[in-house]
Amino acid sequence: MLKHFILIAFRNLKRHTTSSIINITSLSIGLTCALFIYFWVTDEMQVDQFHEKSNRLVQVLQNSPSPNGLETEPYTQGPLAKALADELPEIEYSASVIPYEWFEGEQHILSDGGEKFFIANNQFASEDYFQLFSYELIYGDQAHVLTDENAIVISEELSNKLFETTDAIGKTIEWIHDEYGGTYQVSGVFAQLPATSTNQFDAVFNIKRFLAENDDLTGWTNSDPYTYATLHPHVSLAQFNQKIEYFLQTKNAETEETLMAQKYADRYLHGIYENGRPVSGRIAYVKLFSLVALFILLIAGINFMNMSTAKAAVRLKEVGVKKVMGADRHSLLAQYLTESTILSLISLVIALGLIHFLLPIFNEVTGKQLALHFGSKMMLGISGIAVLTGLFSGSYPALYLSRFSPVQIFKNKTARHAGHPFARHGLMIFQFAISIILLVAVLVVFQQVDLIQSKNLGYNKEQIVQFRLGITANAREDGGGMTDEKINDFLQRLKNIPGVKNATNYAYFMDDFGTTTGLDWPGKEADKTIFFGNVAAGYDFIETLQIKLAAGRAYSREYATDHEKIIFNQTAVREMGIEAPIGKTVTLWGKEREIVGIMEDFHYDKLYEGIAPFFLNLTTNDFASNILVKLEAGQEKAAIDRIKKTYQDFFIAGLPFEYSFLDEQYEQLYAQEIQTGQLSKYAAGMAIFIACLGLFGFASFTMQRRLKEMAVRKILGSGAINIVQLLLRSFLSPIFIAFLIAVPVSYLIAQHYLSAFTFHVELSVWHFGVAGMIILILTVLTVGVQLVKATNVSMVEYLSQGE
Description:
Blueprint lengths: L1 H14 L1 H30 L10 E10 L2 E5 L6 H8 L3 E8 L10 E3 L5 E3 L2 E4 L3 H4 L4 E3 L11 E5 H8 L8 E5 L5 E9 L12 E4 H7 L12 E6 L5 H8 L13 E6 L8 E3 L2 E4 L2 H28 L1 H13 L4 H38 L9 H26 L4 H5 L10 H34 L9 E5 L15 H12 L4 E8 L6 E3 L2 E2 L11 E6 L3 H4 L4 E4 L12 E5 H7 L8 E4 L2 E9 L14 E5 L7 E6 L4 H15 L9 E2 H8 L1 H35 L1 H9 L4 H35 L10 H27 L3 H7 L2
Parallel strand pairs: 6-11, 8-10, 20-25, 22-24
Antiparallel strand pairs: 1-2, 1-12, 1-13, 3-6, 3-12, 4-5, 4-9, 7-10, 8-11, 9-10, 14-15, 16-26, 16-27, 17-20, 17-26, 18-20, 19-23, 21-24, 22-25, 23-24
């Protein structure tokens, strides 16, 4: 029976060549888009899921009161991990971690003790770290690799660079650093970290070494380390959260902070918090594009339905004969569903070919490293999508064609039902409503991205190169650090380079700045808490970024005591309620600071947020080890070549000069939005193309069926233009209805998207008008070509071809 169904399916494909090509093309494109999104979603869902104890691995987060409710942050107290493990039986293992991001801006140079030097991403962790996280150890015992205070666990890549072997156990590594510098012994080597790991590092040190240099973190009043734990099997996360919520109050009765645990693997997709609870994150994009993939497949499937129901009258006699010969409705259903599934599988083969060809481009757009791996799980998913698409596409035609009885068919009582125009128009309305919604989404996203990229931020990010300080030849003698004098000397050398306008140093900026509540001022209300953003900045920071001053001055080398001064933005002064602030004093971290300048407000944070209180703290030592160099427009290449030579002459040989442009770093903050815009653009384009392809086929088939009608109208005196207008109206009415449905839906979706940004574009009539006009023009072009072609056929052909 199956062999018979397959044979009939291929005969029908051959007989109805045009409709078969249209169906295969639309299904192929639809499956290509859907599978790309399926691969992307699958990869997103797998991030950080590879850990063996993923279901029990949690990160403990801290909720702090703020004027906007609870603010959630990953920083916790130094003793927290050990205290939780000692006092709560629900915990199996726990670990404190100082992640490599904590050292953002610092140069981490590891050496073999000789002349080999490499930049590495270093982090500190307590001894149970490798018991929690399933990072594969090639050498070393996960329970003991971090027992010794001078132990270091390195990646196989770093091991090969330093020692030209992966077996580096027992070898010594020198860390050239002013605080943590010294010799460490390799106790373990871990394999290359999976691409789906959000934590990418090169070396792990024992956290005891870090705490020895930062003893303020050994108490319960300061926060910096991350805290992780694995729960015992069958421990409820909800109950655990209830137990730890007020744990800090048992250690520090005055604290207002509370704790919350979240599955570690969930943080990637659920990383946006409101009032101390995860509410959104990248999961919103996963859901969005999953829905887009479903809609694209629906549009492709609707093409099949429309074409099948449009030519229903042609196949009704076939149905009648089969039923007279004894075929029941179930066998007919099976036949038509087999046809649609075969069509879908053919389309799948073509789609996989397209994916193989387009995958590098897709990876570039999404920033992924996806590859086609035809494992059993992947093949099951791909085949499942194709089969379900085929069954959906063929479901309505199969149910529709198989329901007629032989008597109805042979007495021609099905004529008024054949093709069922109401159903076809309903499907067409759905197709174009989705297309209009996607178009509006693309217009809104692209305009918002354009706003992000073009908005006046209050500082100038153009022609600014950014890189990190290196280490000098005598760094070992200096303890790894650079003195203020050496940094100033290097900056002065940069300023003397032709094509360089200015240069400065800083630590933390653009989404990496610190926040503090450790600031007091005269007249401060006792119960008022303000979170201040702050940047450790060197001289010329304001001048290099061309930040405007509303009052006072910038930091200057002409004033020897400027390390005791502070510069606020306008919002900070307004929030503090200080009148005539220049010359007034505030207390920062227990030390008095004189206000010498007020900056005009600028966007130092993402546009998701409003401008918050902010200050600059003058820092001229190597803590502020990021360098910004302002270049002359048009001289960028030559100036960068000279900067590279100056860098290589000043610092130790062999260190790579790695730089980036500040505007590129700014765009990286919005990589997710930019990727969303790109994916939306392609998805909308493909959806509209598939819809127009189906419209083209349906129009072609309709013209063939209405040739006699057009011949009669022509004989009665109707001109070609009148006939085109009459027939075009029947296609435009579903588009108009689709537009009316799409406008409110797309408005709600766009409003939801824009609500995430404090600074965003405003929705206007043109967003919906342009989307509707594009669909209207494409419809007229798609159908109009067919109509004009049909009206040019001679009378004889009209009467001989029509039914």
